[in-house]
Amino acid sequence: MRDYKDFLAEVLIEPEALQKRVAELGALISHDYRDSDALVLICILRGGVLFLSDLIRHITVPHAVEFMAVSSYGSGKRESTGQVRITLDLNMNIHDKDVILVEDIIDSGRTLASVLDLLSARKPRSLCVCTLLDKSERREVYVPLRYVGFTIPNKFVFGYGLDLDELYRNLPFVGVVDEDRYREG
Ligand code: PRP
Ligand code: MN
Ligand code: MG
Known about the structure:
The protein is an alpha/beta fold. The chain has helices at 15-32, 49-55, 110-120, 179-184, and strands at 8-13, 39-44, 63-72, 84-88, 98-106, 126-134, 147-151, 157-158, 174-177.
């Protein structure tokens, strides 16, 4: 197994800064939804799982947690049509629920735009997005983001839920990949 230090260009967000911001978002959500009796957080697998699990420790309003998984149509990945197919659906009926979609990163916005379409058709009471990272320079389709942890530059990032060829999601920081060194290995 390669050591990530061999291709880590820089630590973009240190563990302490991440945890501080996650706590702030949790407090904000707790305040905004203090009167809700129907709060549901939905994590889109897999990138959002670390963020979700840390975030809910700071949410003081009773809430349910749900997971869904999607995959892009076609071989051109999400860059082709941007349409996604649900590969793992929710267990819960979200009709009349206050739904917060939890994501690790918004890049082109296509995954999220598609998921928002699918979920809004189920008539939740409210629906919004909480993302840890917003790579806003890369946006191709508009997506409304209610809670954003950090707006980041257009760099190849990994760690804290974000994978590098499916690995390194467990790292407690968000790092930037040195792509030359990564490919050399
Ligand atoms: C990543 C990330 C977002 C999506 C953002 O997921 O977690 O879900 O891409 O890209 P977009 O804004 O351009 O649609 P990925 O498809 O890599 O799956 P993963 O979460 O399982 O790593
Ligand atoms: Mn993802
Ligand atoms: Mg990924």
